[in-house]
Amino acid sequence: MTTRFDLIVFDWDGTLMDSTAHITRSIQAACQDLGLPIPLRERASHVIGLGLVDAMRVVCPGLPEARYQDMVQAYRHHYLAGDETIELFDGVAEGLAALEAAGYLLAVATGKSRVGLDRALNVTGLAPHFLATRTVDECHSKPHPQMLLDITGQLGVAPARTLMVGDTTHDLQMALNAATLSVGVSYGAHPVEDLLDCEPLAIFDVFDDLQQWLIQQRS
């Protein structure tokens, strides 16, 4: 079998890290702190993957711009108060090691801040696996293709040989915009029926199944 991909780019929250519920609660708590309407869980979780300011604009549209900065600060307060309890999804640490050993180049494209991603990489011990990372601090928010185009350019891999892995339509639409391939995971923020609209090659229910499928692509 001819290998289809050389580079695998992972989203972070909801794809590698089981953080969807904590992010959703932190968004709701930030709105409550500021006396804003508290979004339902579905609305709050839908913005996961966007940069924080863009996410807050979707959650509470029509506010003065300075108010969104207040929301971001309130969100970060609640998120950081509990982020040390967040864990990787089962099989992620072992799976990334196996993919690296199989010869894949690995990278991360996330709506997290640079400080937030670096903190998460250090806490989880996953930093050595990734040859490139991009955050919303360096690039446009998803689904703009800049994160993927920056990573493929840095590593010298054609977009057509690159696979984006994510749990939201923001991830998969970014892949379409960058002309890369994509797969989805069903255990994160967005429902499967929404992911299917973005034409992923496949959708996986657990990380182990994703890892095994990727290994098979290189056999």
Salient structural properties:
alpha/beta; DNA polymerase, domain 1; six-stranded parallel beta sheet; 2 domains; single chain; 219 residues
Summarize the structure.
The protein is an alpha/beta fold. It is built from ten helices and six strands.
Question: How would you characterize the overall build of this protein?
Answer:
- There is one protein chain.
- The chain has two domains: 7-18 and 87-217, Rossmann fold (3-Layer(aba) Sandwich), CATH 3.40.50; 20-84, DNA polymerase, domain 1 (Orthogonal Bundle), CATH 1.10.150.
- 47% of the residues lie in helices and 11% in strands.
- The chain is built from ten helices and six strands, in the order E-H-H-H-H-H-E-H-E-H-E-H-E-H-E-H.
- It has a six-stranded parallel beta sheet, sandwiched between helices.
- The longest helix has 18 residues, at 65-82.
Topology record:
Layout lengths: L6 E4 L9 H14 L7 H6 L5 H8 L5 H18 L9 H10 L3 E5 L4 H11 L7 E3 L11 H10 L6 E5 L2 H10 L2 E5 L6 H5 L6 E2 L2 H11 L2
Parallel strand pairs: 1-2, 1-4, 2-3, 4-5, 5-6
Helix pairs in contact: 1-4, 3-4, 5-10
